Amino acid sequence: IDLIQSDIHQAGFKYYASPYAMVSTQPIRIETSGSDFTVVFDDWNSPTATPDSPDRVLVRYYLASYTPPGISTTGSRQRLMRDLRKCTTPANECFITNSTAMYTYTTSEPGEPILDWVKTFNVTGLNPKIAGSFQGQFQTLQIQIIVGSPTKIEGTTKTVTKTFTFLARAKNVSLVP
After folding, report:
1. How is the chain split among helix, strand and coil, in percent rounded to 5?
2. DSSP three-state, residue 26
3. pLDDT for 102-133, tens place per residue?
4. Strand, helix or coil at 3?
């Protein structure tokens, strides 16, 4: 939860000396399914950034089906993935298609798994900005994650699930009032 909140807090951040504008539609994007979202910001912590030049990065959170090697499972097992990507042309709007994955877990699933046995991952945009250059951009995201146990409780037919619902607010001065 802290990692997701940290990325959302940085959404839309543009280094003051960067020659590249932050396109108003890119700081926070939520796919229509609500189970996949991206944030874009300038980042000094990325592996290829320098003290004078942060990288423009796109971070994507999404669910991916998972079956461990050599194990057959019944039902669907999903992992929450975090895909950190460097924007290859920061002068343009940053998308998955014009960015490069910085970490690759498998060839079919870019990024790294951050949570296993996820039953539900749902993102809802709240508090859209009503004026200014970032009009319509969400300032707050509500995220719901439901995690289930891998096996039934001994002696019962029930599995344990835990629901986490939290809010994260973009703290970039351009996005907040």
Report:
1. 5, 45, 50
2. coil
3. 887 666 678 899 999 999 999 999 999 898 88
4. helix
Determine the Cα–Cα distance for residues 142 and 93; give it in Å rounded to an integer: 25
C-beta of residue 31 within 8 angstroms of C-beta of residue 71: no
**Span 43-56, pLDDT tens digits:** 988 778 887 788 99
Q: Alpha-carbon distance 132 to 175, whole Å?
A: 9
Question: Which helix H or strand E contains 13, and what residues bound it?
Answer: none
Work out whether strand 99-101 and strand 112-116 pair parallel, antiparallel, or are unpaired: unpaired
Number of Cβ atoms within 10 Å of the Cβ of 52: 8
pTM of the predicted model as reported, rounded to 2 decimal places = 0.89
Q: Could you give the CA distance from residue 101 to residue 80 in angstroms, rounded to a whole number? A: 16
